[in-house]
Write a structure and sequence with these properties.
The relative contact order is 0.07. Helices cover 41% and strands 23% of the residues. The model has no long low-confidence stretch (mean pLDDT 91). By secondary structure, it is α+β, with helices and mostly antiparallel strands. The strands form eleven sheets. A five-stranded antiparallel beta sheet has the order 24-23-29-28-27, sandwiched between helices. It has a three-stranded mixed beta sheet with strand order 2-1-6, with helices on one face. Helix 12 runs antiparallel to helix 19.
């Protein structure tokens, strides 16, 4: 009985097992059929769901939509450029030369061939695991420009180790590596970039300094030893220690890419020795030389002093400090200090005294000069230096020109009321030309009067004066201080070839002209009629000085002169003339 029941149970179990297997097979076949149907009928123009291109979700999109997603990501992408030792910088991806191949990437993502569709669950596999890398190429023109900018931002010069001496201390400034960014390495990083990346690293190559810390260690040790050593100088009268900060100021460091050299600044040492006032020093006296009218008449000779021979001693100090074993005492060499010499120059109120005065002044002042002093008060005080030396007139010619024009007016060939090319009348242009040294008026008047006429009329009376530019070798107007002063002598005397009223008119203009920084400054409070000129290094001042002890003239023509020099000579001449 039990056996029959057991057999029946076994049969039932077998039946159920076979039935489950059949249903399982049927289910698998149905699932396979559905899967194949889905895979087979999935649109061929769309990317499989959940697919990514370079990390960007593009699943289910058609070609155009996928390309637009990628393009939008690329066109708007900004990277943080990471350059070592520089602040990060935002850059647009499009400006790096990185060019994605959208068509190729999207085409690869869409490509789901028929043979793959018959593979069970290939669609699911693509959905879960299929990823496409975005191909790209580098636009060389854009990249090269980008790489140049990166190289500029990246570049750091290597810094050599250096020895610095400051405030009596010796310090070592350590060497520092430099760096450069190479285009090839930057290109490799750019080529491996993904659209989802937010930064781009610029690889650097280290540049080693020529002078490393160990290469300057010996010089640093020596410099430190010199400054920290108690330097003692000695003489037969005393010994003294030089302050550390002074010793440090003597030490100089010169460096190149290959070496550092220590030296002693001889000028700094000499300055210290020359200024030292210890027991060794005996001040020299002062010899006074009395000079009258340029000739020495007596001399008060002072005693010599004693000091340190700076030339010899500075060399001893340099040798001792740089020898590697600094002496306990560096002995100074003593020398005789000659007395200083001062000159007491006096000038008599004579022609000899006046002549000596202007000659000495010429020796004391830089420049090339023609000087003439002429007394107009009957005392006969006169002197001259290079009075016939030729100079370009600059604007002093305008006093000659005014004279020539007024002579022509008196001859009836021109009128004060005539117009000129400047729009002013002849009279107004004469005023402007003398009072303010206006060049357009001078040119207009010379054109109107005639260059040949002006030149010939003036040269007939003042033979060293050339007023026609075409008549000179250099195309300029020329004169001498003798001609210029003689013109004003005759103007003051009323002996030019024009009326008394025109003499007074021109003389009054010279008294009122505005350029008074030279001769008039040397005689404050005194009436001065003068005409100045300045042009291309030429500087002149021709004057009549109405002094308290009599009228006299001072004419200065120069190349390289200056108003303050003219004022100084004017003051010196006035002191002699007005005694």
């Amino acid at each position: 009985m039990i056996t029959k029941t057991k057999n029946a149970a076994i049969k039932t179990h077998r039946f159920l097992t076979e039935k489950r297997i059949h249903w399982l097979v049927y289910g698998v076949l149905i699932l396979y059929s559905v899967n194949l149907s889905i895979q087979f009928f999935y649109p061929g123009d769309r990317i499989t769901p959940f697919s990514r291109i370079d990390g960007i979700e593009v699943g289910g999109r058609d070609y155009t939509a996928a390309v637009n997603i990628l393009r939008e990501k690329y066109d708007n992408a900004r990277l943080q450029l990471q350059v070592p030792n520089a602040k990060p910088k935002q850059v647009e991806l499009v400006k790096t030369g990185f060019v994605p191949e959208y068509a190729q990437a999207v085409g690869q993502a869409i490509d789901y061939p028929i043979w793959q569709r018959f593979i069970p669950f290939s669609l699911a596999h693509r959905m879960l695991f299929y990823r496409v890398e975005l191909p790209q190429h580098i636009d060389d023109i854009v990249f090269n420009e980008f790489a140049n900018e990166v190289a500029t931002a990246c570049a750091r010069e290597a810094e050599n180790a250096a020895i610095e001496i400051q405030d009596g201390q010796v310090r070592l400034r350590p060497a520092k590596d430099g760096q450069k960014c190479e285009a090839d390495k930057l290109r490799k990083n750019l080529q491996s970039l993904k659209l989802t990346d937010s930064s781009l690293r610029a690889p650097t190559t280290a540049i080693r300094p020529q002078l490393t810390d160990d290469k300057v260690a010996a010089q640093f040790t020596q410099a430190k030893a010199i400054v920290e050593h108690d330097i003692t100088l000695g003489s037969p009268a005393e010994r003294w220690k030089v302050p550390r900060e002074i010793v440090a100021s003597w030490l100089t460091v010169t460096s190149s890419d290959h070496e550092i050299k220590l030296a002693i600044n001889a000028d700094a040492v000499k300055k210290y020795l020359a200024e030292y006032r210890g027991k060794t020093y005996i001040a020299p006296g002062q010899t006074t030389v009395h000079v009258l009218d340029g000739l020495e008449v007596s001399r008060n000779t002072a005693l010599a002093g004693q000091g340190i021979d700076t030339e010899v001693t500075s060399k001893r100090i340099a040798d001792g400090l740089l020898s590697g074993k600094i002496p306990d005492v560096i002995w100074t060499q003593l020398a005789v200090l000659p007395p200083s010499v001062v000159y007491d120059r006096q000038y008599t109120q004579t022609n000899a005294g006046l002549q000596a005065l202007i000659e000495q002044w010429d020796r004391d002042n830089a420049g090339r000069y023609g000087i003439l002093v002429r007394d107009l008060s009957g005392r006969g005080l006169n002197a001259e230096l290079n009075a016939d030396r030729d100079f370009v007139t600059a604007s002093t010619y305008k006093q000659f020109l005014a004279y020539a024009v007024m002579h022509k007016i008196e001859a009836g060939e021109m009128s004060f009321d005539d117009g000129t090319s400047t729009g002013l009348t002849v009279r107004a242009c004469i005023d402007e030309m003398i009072l303010h040294s206006t060049n357009p008026c001078a040119i207009a008047l010379q054109n109107q009067a005639g260059w040949s006429y002006v030149h010939n009329f003036i040269r007939g009376q003042f033979p060293s004066t050339i007023l026609d530019n075409g008549a000179s070798s250099d195309g300029d107007k020329h004169s001498t201080v003798r001609d210029e002063v003689t013109f004003q002598t005759r103007l003051n005397a009323g002996s030019l070839e024009m009326s008394d009223s025109n003499h007074a008119y021109l003389l009054d203009l010279l008294k009122r002209q505005v350029y008074r920084g030279g001769i008039p400054v040397g005689v404050p409070g005194v009436t001065v009629a003068n005409k100045v000129g300045f042009y291309n290094g030429y500087k002149h001042d021709i004057a009549i000085i109405y002094g308290p002890r009599g009228t006299y003239q001072l004419g200065i023509m120069s190349y390289g002169g200056a108003d303050w020099r003219f004022a100084d000579l004017s003051r010196r001449v006035a002191e002699l003339m007005n005694r």
